[in-house]
Amino acid sequence: MQFYSTNNKDLRVDLKEAVIRSLPADNGLYMPETITPLPASFWENWREMSLPELGFHVAKQILGDSIPEDALRDIVNEAINFDAPVVKIAEHTHVLELFHGPTLAFKDFGARFMARTMAYLNRDDDSMLTVLVATSGDTGGAVASAFHNVEGTRVIILYPKGGVSDLQEKQLTTLGGNITALEVDGSFDDCQAMVKANFLDRDLMEKYNLTSANSINISRLIPQAFYYFNAARQLEEGKEPVFVIPSGNFGNLTAGLLAQKLGLQVRHWVAATNINDTVPRYLADGNYEPLPSSPTISNAMDVGAPSNFARMKDLFGDDWEAMRENISGLAFGDDETREAIKAVKANTGYTIDPHGAVGILAAEAWHQASPEDECIILETAHPSKFLPTMEEELGKGSVEIPERLACLADLPKEAHQVSNDPKEVQKFL
Ligand SMILES: *Cc1c(COP(=O)(O)O)cnc(C)c1O
After folding, report:
1. Counting atoms of ligand 1 from 1, which one is nearest the CA of 353?
2. Domains of the chain, with CATH numbers?
3. What is the pLDDT of residues 286-322, one digit of tens each?
4. Whose CA is nearest to atom 15 of ligand 1?
């Protein structure tokens, strides 16, 4: 399989180039050159397959023979070693729980698949692959956990001093081994600039085999297509789901569109955002006007210029009408989101995090017009990751902290203090 740039379809690269380099030089995004629906033999028994089995068939269909079957099967089985259950919380309303991975957010799917794919693609190279990543929150934790102990790789994480929560910091700084954390005396933007400066240095990049674990890496999207199949198969046969997706950079929604291209029957997509509503506004009037982001309680969706929008446009051949026939966009403010957290708890007993709550609001709006549709809302993270907000709405002690997060509190932090000079990074290469 070859991959093209959304800015230039004549620019083709192989999987290794697309995954290790992450971004084409023309600033587009890589896309598979063809996406062919899964064959009849797959549809005969897909409803009986486990999540990793579905994952293997989906990945194989997208990647073709870029990775041999045995190796691909191993990558999928090792990466997706946790479940993504669908929980029915009310009539026609289901929650797809994507927080059962090690760092309690759906980003574990993408990061774990990417880590193993990168290690595989780099297996014959003498030099170790060095992943440089700047983080302001969840991405760094997912990436650190995903690459921890993966042979032939190491990770250097830059995070802003005082800019991440205590437990997030522990997720970055307690693993040790091939994971190095740099606590930067500066902002998140400084961290990103430091990473970028080192990437722009071609000599350094080649000498140390530098790569980025950027969220727009195509290998992060592929495993996110798996769980749409796994969720749809759990509905009664013949029912086509409406997927409701709390969205920021729109990676999740783009992965859903890949699943649809592979032949998954989906009735409709609902893109749910907080007040950072660039895509809902585009769907309403056809004008794409990114804005600076505004902070909200669903902060993983505080994105003003969604990075995967170029892929969405590409999948619809830049046809606004076609996109809005398939995707609806709805945006909600923090007050409504807080009310939704309380209402869901009171009416169903389910504890939903602020991102999922935005999805609940969108599903309710959808049901106003189409009450019989089966809505599946993606619960993108475990509520314990947003403890202050949850406790404000539901009371102290209302949210259980899973052991894999709670146990980090007592582990010692190991981070190197550095200034915001890009050269500081080179001491650790
Ligand atoms: C990253 C993230 C999102 C946004 O997902 P996109 O794929 O960027 O749209 C939503 N919720 C949580 C909890 C996240 O971590």
Report:
1. 13
2. 77-106+221-402 (3.40.50.1100)
3. 999 999 889 999 998 999 999 999 999 999 999 999 9
4. 300
Half-sphere exposure (Cβ direction) of 195: Cα atoms closer than 13 Å: 24
Find out whether the beta carbon of 308 lies less than 6 Å from any atom of ligand 1.
no
* Confidence check: pLDDT of 63 > 90: yes
Q: How far is CA 43 from CA 46, 57, 265, in A?
A: 5, 11, 11
Q: Kindly state the average pLDDT of the residues 57-73.
A: 98
Longest dimension (CA), the chain: 60
- pLDDT (tens digit per residue) in 183-224: 999 988 899 889 988 988 889 988 999 998 877 899 999 999
pTM above 0.90, yes or no: yes
Q: Quick check: CB of 222 below 6 Å from ligand 1?
A: no
How much is the mean pLDDT over the chain?
Answer: 95
Ligand 1 pocket check: which of 245, 355, 378 to mutate, most ligand atoms within 8 Å of Cβ? 355
